[in-house]
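Intended use. Records like the one below are meant for learning the mapping from a protein sequence to its folded structure. Do not use them to infer anything beyond what is encoded.
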Amino acid sequence: MEIDYNLVQRAQMLLTLDHPLSQVRDILLCEGYPQDQVVELIDATEEVLNYLVPPEYDENKIGIDIMRPGEKTEGRKPGVDILIDKHSGKLSLMTPQYQETWKVANEVRKAIRHQRSVGRYYH
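Structure written out for the chain above:
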């Protein structure tokens, strides 16, 4: 399918302004761009971004994959929503556009704080 060059430029501009892909899609549709072109462009962009910028984790980091309400488990690709540095306890939100990511991150932060405060008494 041929995608309108103006649509591509507008999407690039919105992405450089740090809009999440879902919001870029909604903005483009509200601005009147053809739905089939918008969906194809967003899907292709998501595929490329997920391929080119995979979350980096190793033996020093823990990745958390969050199942969202209504998400199907069959055929689901696991991904990292939250990355935790084992040494510093620093959290990196890989999918901050989802409310569930923030909820889980807050619980993890509480657990890390609690673990550190309990650890002070034993050292």
